[in-house]
Design goal:
Structural class: alpha+beta
Distance between the termini: 37 Å
Helix content: 40-55%
Largest sheet: 4 strands, antiparallel
Oligomer: single chain
Number of strands: 4
Order of helices and strands: HEHHEEHHE
Shape: globular
Amino acid sequence: MTMTKATQETVVGEGLAAGCLKHGVTGITSSSIVLDGAFRRAWSAFPMAGHFPAVRTTLGRETIRLILAASARRRGHVAGWQQDRAWWAPYITQSDWTPDDVTEHLAELHGIPESAWSDLAKALIDDLGDRYVRRG
């Protein structure tokens, strides 16, 4: 089943939030230039990117900031992002869920392996470096 653009963006936002939380990350930079570049590089190495054609990483057409900004407004989302000054902070909406519960839920619904989100988040975190990542 093909996902709509909104569903693709929701799933990527949820998966990335859960992946970051799995790595102990409580925030990533909101700097457009830094975030766009790091996400572009992480996304280009993401083996599941082909499942999300609506996610753009071409210069000037990046959708990562739109995905993060819209995540809190999406209905029925299980994880998302909240902007806190210079940071985007990942969160889980279900109080009794863990990041693993989120990625398991996404795997069941959309067939994206649980480990894929952790790998994408790690690539993004590594590219951003300590200066642009907030932990615990």
